[in-house]
Amino acid sequence: MRLTRRNLLGAAMAASLAVAAPAFAAKPLTIGFSQVGAESEWRTANTASIKDAARKAGVNLKFADAQQRQENQVKAIRSFIAQRVDVIAFSPVVESGWDTVLREAKAAKIPVILTDRAVKVSDPSLYVSFIGSDFVEEGRRAARWLVEHAKKNPNRSYNIVELQGTVGSAPALDRKAGFAEVIAGNPKLKIIRSQTGDFTRAKGKEVMEAFLKSEGKNINVLYAHNDDMAIGAIQAIEEAGLKPGKDILVVSIDGVRGAFEAMLQGKLNVTVECNPLLGPQLIQTAQAVKAGKPVPKRITVNEGVFPAEVAAKEFPNRKY
Ligand code: GZL
Is the pLDDT of residue 219 over 50? Predict the structure, then answer.
């Protein structure tokens, strides 16, 4: 290239921009995320997915574990507001009690994304998007498996005990509603006991022990709102001298590895998938929100149903 006045000027401009470029490099997106806790295999997979997606995208993730307490989530959200994060995201441990703190986020002009669980608020503009499963449908799918099983055993009736998730949480409320909707009016299917096991293995075992003490061999089916409670209950059933998966059918939700292992051992009959791998969708949505692009108010995830018969074939494909 000939060294003309114009070329020299162009080269000098390019050099100055190259030098200045770092000064103009976009500041990484900062997301404040309040997680429910670490209560289940599902939650562990959900947290890993979010942290992994943030790392891969170069997002600055401020992560807070609420240990399943709403007051800790409110504190975390207030801290994110004070730190002026770009986006706040959280999985609300329970449905209600969020209006005040979400109004504070709105006043601070910090957009809020819900993942996993929904909230009940007076003003839907308090969050920009909710990314998560349809828990009512998950409850329906669990019940449909049992309805079909009962049709193959026309002379039997089924007394069901139910281990509910965390009191007041969207998955517990909706999975209960969906299951009840499908078995309604079916004289062969009856829920005889229903109590929260708070989504944990320990509590699931403890409550199942109480069910067995009061109902014993009268129990034909356990419906657990998540696999962790089902796995805890399976231990209680075995300690009571009964065969889980045979004496007491075990119907559960999540689709975590522990459930597949239990199905391979013949101790769990079906798990309804609830996909925890929400990290990529969360990061993409947060990036779009930050860029001022429109995002869907509701983003659902595709999920399946895995009866024990398919466990061996499906297990190697599982991602959580
Ligand atoms: C469902 C999620 C529930 C899981 C449980 O999306 O909120 O919480 O089903 C977890 O395993 O503890």
Answer: yes
